[in-house]
Amino acid sequence: MQLSPELLLIETRNGLTELQYYGYVVYCDADKNIKTFGKTNNYPFFQRSCAKPLQASIIQDLKTKDYFNLTEEEIAVCCASHTGEPVHLEILRNLLKKAGLSESDLKCPAIEPLNKEEQIKFKTYLALHNNCSGKHTLMLAVCKQMGWDTKTYLETDHPIQKLIYTKIKELCETENELPLTADGCGAPNWATSLEELAIGFYNLFCTENYPDIKYAAIKNPYLMGGQDRPETQIMQMNHKLIAKAGAGGLLCIANTDTQEVLAFKIMDADMKARNIIAIETMLQLNWLNINSIDKNLLKNSLNNIVTTETGQKVGEYNLSNSLSAWLSVNF
Questions:
Q1: Domain ranges, ordered by start, for the chain
Q2: Quick one: CA torsion of 306, 309, 312, 315, rounded to 10 degrees?
Q3: What CATH topology corresponds to 6-54+154-330?
Q4: Residue-wise pLDDT tens digits, 218-246
Q5: Collapsing DSSP states into helix, strand and coil, what is residue 175?
Q6: From 18, 19, 56, 269, which residue has the greatest number of CB atoms within 10 Å?
Q7: Model-level pTM?
């Protein structure tokens, strides 16, 4: 199927267009009506790390919170692409201990933490440093709760992966068979349309059906990401928002106050462009009030100025005229 992404953002330098960023914006309102910028043609994109809170939602049905006496902090880190800071690792170690597990049970690879300051502290990295280790820890804990094998928990025919697959289809309200890949961390990862992904976030965060996940996220923006993570920055700017970024240029944001969802897909996966597009869009939708946001936080997150290495301003990033017009007409 031919993809038809729209121009979302333009980077200029000395008045000339230097870079252009294409992708899609999907909006879901309080009645689950969908609007899209860019013809998605219901193309399936792998959910990557945007799947983490959807995957974690199985604990609501299984009453895992009560079984292990999980704290909101533990649940938040298990939904996160965390930065591997001591606060994240300590929480996960405590959860592993609660479940009678050890770090050696984790099947995610030992890679450098996302936090650059933590990277230089270690000569070798741990599986816990992996930004997906929270997801893996929760999968293992559920396996212990249910009496399932913990050595094969990443295999697609394992009971936990079958359960997650069914839950993702339920949350995203799709009857389609979902394409499958291995995520970067080795766990199964399924693809849905961006519209279905937005519906999944609506059902998870804009209702009261999954309070364990919803309020763990709302109350712990730093644990949902960490230093310089877009999730944390967005959630700190408005404590009613729940954000989750994913590889491949994905970002989903649920507004728990207005029961609306935005899903972004940046085709070249440029993270800076993704942040600017998302924040500019939220400003135009009044999800963010520029007068009530910490100015340093906004400057760090928006960062729409192009500079030289000495700090001289030579250009800027701006939403495309077509995206700005779409936002003005529809909202």
A1: 6-54+154-330
A2: -20
A3: Beta-lactamase (3.40.710)
A4: 999 999 999 999 999 999 999 999 999 99
A5: coil
A6: 56
A7: 0.96
